[in-house]
Each structure stands twice: as C-alpha cells, then as structure tokens.
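debug: dumping io for the single-chain case to check the tokenizer round-trip. Nothing else runs in this session.
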Amino acid sequence: MSIDIRALRYFVETVKLGSFTHAAAAVFVTQSTISKMVRQLEEEIGQPLLIREGRKVHPTDVGRVVYERGLQALGVIRELQLEVADVAQLGRGELTVGMPRMGNLFFPAVVSEFRRRYPKLELCLAEHGGSVLEQKIIGGELEVAATVLFSGGIQEKLASRVIARYAIYAVGPRNVPWAGRPTVELSTFKDQPLVLLEEGSALTRRLRSAFRELDIEPHVVAQSGHWEFLAALSEAGLGTTFLPQPFLARLDVSGLSVARVTEPELEWTLANIWSHDRYLSHAARAWLALCAEVLEAQ
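debug: decoded output
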C-alpha cells in the first residue's frame, strides 16, 4: 500500500479542524480538492476514514489510527525538511578533506576561517600522499582534497583548481660544487647523493619524471615524509634535497646551499581536486570557495 503524503496531510488537517471547508482554507486549496484527496486516501487504505455529518466530519476507528500515525509521519517529514535545509545552509553536517603531508604550511588559515564561519560543521583532515589522495577521491572515500600536481597532471576522472605555483629549490650541504649559485641545472645531480620525500609524494614523482627525461637514474640515499628532517639530513652532509620556495622561509639556511632548479624549470603546483562524476556536498563546495578566497588572494 502506498500513501500519497499530500492526501495524508489534507486528511489530518480535516480531522484536526472537523471540516472540509476549514481544512481547505488552512492549506489554501479548494474544498473539492480536499474531498477528492480524502476519498483517494480512503481508497488507498481500503476503509472509510471519516463520518460525514452535515458540514462536520469525525474520524472512524480506522480514521483515528490513520490520524495519529499521520501526525507522526508528517512530523518526521517536517523534521527531515528542516534537517535538509540546515545542511544546505551549512548549519550542520561533516566534511573530511584530504591533505598532502606538505600542505600543513598553507591551510591553517583556511581551517580556522572555515570553523569560524561554519561552527556546527565537523571538519576532519585526512593526511596522505598525492597518489593516495587521488585514489580516495576516485573511490568515493573523499569528496575533496588538496594535493600537489606534477607534469603528468591528474587522472581524467578528477577536476582540479590551482591554488598556487612555486619554484622548486635544491637544498644541499654547504660544500657542494654549486654552492653560491642562484640557479642549478637538474643534470648537475647526476650521480650525486639525494635525500627525497617518500615515493607517494607528488614532488618526488615530479623529480623522478624530470630525471627520466634527462636519462638520469637519481642516486637516492634516504627518503622521509618530513621535509624538515630532509633539510636536516642535507645540512648533516648526507645529500641534496628539493623543496618548494615557501618552505625555505621556515628553514635556517645559513648552513645550507640553496639554488633554484632550472633546465628544466620545475614548479610545485598546489591545487584542490574532486570527482567530475559525483555529487559535491554543500560543505565541500564551501571549502573550495573558501580556499579560493583565502589562498588565491595571498
């Protein structure tokens, strides 16, 4: 048995007010519409629901059951409508944003502003490497993520919006042959010891791709997920690492050699990604808009 919600609403209003005329005025339809919808409900239930006495109506015993349950059902529907509206207006809900391990430098201001504007939205951050974040977006585990793009781009199923682009710098021990130079060619690092970010990071993928284009097999002696540790290894003389320009401001480079990488020119491109093919929640859209407002203005 299927019940028309509108017919149920008209029936409940009729019982509540005891009159077709008063019910019609309350829901802003004609009396004939009320009568028609109540008859339809009686046909769907298979039992008479109202006793008609002149202009007054009273519920039958079955009608009383339908009235009580109808009140409950319409109450649930009203609550559902309110909750949906609340979510649409960002008054409640939750959002998990994927974040690259090197992204913690850029997003504190966005997270702070998001919490200020939407205090009832629960915001969680999931930290992963770039390739993992892409797979989680494609698999539906995440709606949106910040990641680092490299020359190969992103998978076709994903959409992206660039937030910022930065040059990549070589950061090495003080006594390297290129010390004191403002720029250094990537080919300089053939056969030189390197300390790189972990393999899942977009920066390492970009570097390996650039080395392949030069027909160079990089000599990687250590890897880590923490860029500060890599800089410390470089200062200790273990090898050269590579970092985007904004990270240099967080380092004491007095004991290091620093030069912008050229030939090829390498860029570290920060972007948000999401799926072309899936619904994007109001919370996710708010996150993207806020990233554009806060980060792209910097």
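debug: round-trip ok. Residues 275 and 288 are 13 Å apart (CA to CA).
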